[in-house]
Amino acid sequence: MSAKVQSPGPTPKMALVVHSDLSVISNFQSALSEKGYVTIVARDLPTALLAVTQHYFEIAIVSSRLEEGGDGWPLAGVLHLVFPRAFVAVISPTEPDVLTLQSAINYGVREVYQQSMPSPEIVGAILAQVETAPATRPSRKPRVQ
Amino acid sequence: MQLWSANILSTLGIYLVSMVRKRSLLLVDDESSILQTLRLVFENEGYAVITADSCAQALEILANGHKFDAVVTDLNMEKEDIGLEVARAALRLKPKPAVVICTGFASVTNSRAALDLGVDYMAHKPVELQGLIAALNRLLARRDRGVRA
Lengths: 145, 149
Known about the structure:
The complex is a heterodimer.
Chain A (H helix, E strand, L loop, with lengths): L4 E2 L6 E6 L3 H13 L2 E6 L2 H10 L4 E5 L8 H11 L4 E6 L5 H9 L4 E4 L4 H14 L10 E2 L1
Chain B lengths: L1 H19 L2 E6 L3 H13 L2 E6 L2 H9 L6 E5 L8 H9 L6 E6 L4 H10 L3 E4 L4 H16 L5
Parallel strand pairs in B: 1-2, 1-3, 3-4, 4-5
């Protein structure tokens, strides 16, 4: 009996957007979609954590404030731990200060963007950095039937 | 089941390697009391420690082909923010060590520079030792698993 190797085909690039504001989520979703990313969205921590268990993300964009100020940071840290090669960005409502920048370093966040910056610009800036140092994903082995 | 066994063996292997080989650490600070205290602390944690009391000395050590698992540097030494030069040189090494900056003079400018460089951890002086040790151990455990620290 001979084994037949089947190519799994291209895997879609995945992005996660976690923000409590639906309009912000929608703007990111369309900006990422234009660049060929399939976007999973979450408005709270439990939904975001559920998504983490089900997908592999190349990009994660997380609000620093989900339900309370600063509670997005630990989630960003978790995303960096689970997807170490992903580009994890945090959206901050204010201009990043010393503590914000240090939180970014210590949680493994690659960049902090101000919420006032338009979503397509943020996505463009992220992709420019991702393309400079391409994120690698776990290789998907061909299935043997 | 086989995958599960392979994962256990791999984890055990990493653990045994880290037990046999001492992790190497370059400590850089121009205050000798801090340098000696951190040296004692990290040697006690099982690290092989090399110290440098200036940025210039650290850059010389890094240029001489020494390999380090981690580099912990002060920020203000000969000049303000010159520790960023140590971090920059360390981050060019292959394999890349975990790079930690300790400072009592953090600003938006130097924190932004550290983030852009890809520094792995920034600690405030006076350094909370248990926090620093835990952060370094966590970064090195990830590095051992082949993930960018």
